[in-house]
Amino acid sequence: PLWRGGGRTFPNSPEENFGQKLNKKMYRAGLCSILSQLAREDRLSVIEGFTVDAPKTKLVAGKLKAMGLSDSVLVITDTVDENLALAARNLTHVMVVEPHHADPVSLVRFDRVLITRPALAKVQEMLA
Predict the structure, then answer these.
(1) If you placed Cys at 74, which of 41, 51, 60, 110 could pair as Cys (CB 3.0 to 4.6 Å)?
(2) pTM, whole model, 2 decimals?
(3) pLDDT category of residue 128 using cuts at 50, 70 and 90
């Protein structure tokens, strides 16, 4: 800063964290309100199970098309097996997650949310 042209004495570090602290109770309440709003808008669907036999993208796309879902879809399953993860990763508007990885941003971002019954039980357990 003493040289011609100036400078910054204490510049921002690249590791600076801009995240905000959120209490656990507020996070759970936010998830509850988002899920209830999705249910009111008919954007939340509960299904028995969502698996594929082989890691083929065409199989996942066919299943979603048979359900009438061609827009962006978030699929929440109790366990994500390797076949399902490999088959869905190439679809740009489809994301498959486990219940503890479902965050409020992804719940709001996707147009439709599919959740399996065992995953719904886990979510209810997490939010209780």
Answers:
(1) 110
(2) 0.82
(3) confident
What confidence category does residue 71 fall into, taking pLDDT thresholds of 50, 70 and 90?
confident
Nearest of 119, 121, 118 to residue 101 by alpha carbon:
119
Strands of the chain, DSSP E: 44-47, 73-76, 94-97, 112-116
**4-to-1, 10, 29, 41 alpha-carbon distances in Å:** 8, 17, 54, 61
Amino acid at 72: S
Kindly write down the DSSP assignment for every residue of 47-80, as one continuous string.
ES----SSS-HHHHHHHHHHTT--S-EEEE-SS-
| Three-state DSSP state, 1 | coil
Q: Which pair of structure tokens corresponds to residue 94? A: 């489809």
Q: Measured at the alpha carbon of residue 16, what is the angle toward residues 15 and 21, in degrees to the nearest 5?
A: 125
Give the other-Cβ count within 10 Å of 84's Cβ.
19
